Amino acid sequence: MESLINRAASDLVESKYAIALTGAGMSTESGIPDFRGPKGLWTRQPEAERRAYEIYGKFQQNPKEYWEERLSGHSLLGDLLRDLGKVAPNPGHYALAELEKMGILKCVITQNIDNLHERAGSKRVLDYHGNAFKLRCVSCNARYDLEEYDLQELRDEGGLPPRCKKCGGIVKDDIVHFTEPIPSDIAEESEKEALKCDLMLICGTSAVVYPFANLPLMARSHSGTLPSELYGTGYRTIVKIIELNAEPTPLTQDGISDYLIQGKTGEILPQIVEQVKKAS
C-alpha cells in the first residue's frame, strides 16, 4: 500500500487540475450509517425506505403539506437533521480540505448530504445529491442556509411553503429525493469538472448510483484535445483516476480507474497529504 500512496501523492503533485468524488464510505467513517448496508437505515426500517420514495411526489402535489409534515417533528428529514448534527468530519474530510488549501485539489463533488466537507474547510464543494443543511428554490436553484428562514414562524402564520427571496419560487429542502432530478446547475457544473480534470480521486463510493457514476466514465473518455471553452485553448490531457475504496468497484473491474488503494479513506488520505508535502 505504501508504494500506491507514494504514487498517488506524486500524481497529485504533477496534476494541473485534480478533483475528488466522494461517497457514503467517507460518511460512514464519521459514524453515519449507510442506507442499505447491514446496519443501514433502510435495512433496519424498510418502511422508512418506502416513505422516502414518496416524499418528492408529495412535494410536487402539495408543497404546503410537504412542509407541514417536515416541521411536525415526526418526519424522516427532521430525524435526519438531528442525527447529522451529532457527527463531525473525519481525517479524510480534513485531508481533502488541506489538498484544496495547498492549491492541488480544485473541487469536491460529493454524493453525501451531511455538509461534512464544508465543515472540514473545503471551499469548493458540489453537493450532487443536495445538502441537508440548506434549502433550494425549485425555480431558480437559489440556495439558502436553514437559518435564513424562520420555518416555524412561517408555519404558525400560514406562510408555507417558503418562497424564494430572489424569484418568489417555491423552496424545498436541498436534498435530492428519490425520483427527483439532479439540480441542473449542479449537474452541469459537475460534468464540466469531470471533463476538465486531469486527475480524479474517487473516495468511498461504490460507483453504482447514477447519474453520479457517469462522472468517472466521462473523465476517462475525455482524454484528448478538450473544447476551447474549458481551457481557453486546445489542451491535451491524459486523465488519471485513482480509487480509494474499501472494496473493488465496477470502476476497478472494468479498468476505468488506473489503480485502487484499498482501505479506509480516513486513514489513506492523510497519508497521501503527508507524502504530497514531502514531494512539493
Distance between the termini: 21 Å
> The biggest beta sheet, please?
6 strands, parallel
**Secondary-structure element order, N to C:** HEHHHHHHEHEEEHEHEHEHEEHEH
CATH superfamily of the domain at 1-32 and 89-131 and 182-280: TPP-binding domain
User: Helix count?
Assistant: 14
Tell me briefly what this model is:
With 280 residues, the protein is α/β, with parallel strands linked by helices.
Describe this structure in words.
By secondary structure, the chain is of the alpha/beta class. It has a domain at 1-32 and 89-131 and 182-280: 3-Layer(aba) Sandwich (Rossmann fold), CATH 3.40.50.1220. It has 14 helices and 11 strands. It starts with a helix and ends with a helix.
What's the arrangement of secondary structure elements?
Layout: H1 2-14, E1 18-22, H2 24-28, H3 41-44, H4 46-61, H5 63-70, H6 76-84, H7 91-101, E2 105-110, H8 116-120, E3 125-127, E4 134-137, E5 143-145, H9 151-156, E6 171-173, H10 184-196, E7 199-203, H11 214-221, E8 224-225, H12 228-231, E9 236-237, E10 240-245, H13 250-253, E11 259-262, H14 265-279
Parallel strand pairs: 1-2, 1-7, 2-3, 7-10, 10-11
Antiparallel strand pairs: 4-5, 4-6, 8-9
Sum up the structure in keywords.
14 helices, 43% helix, single chain, six-stranded parallel β-sheet, Rossmann fold, 280 residues, alpha/beta
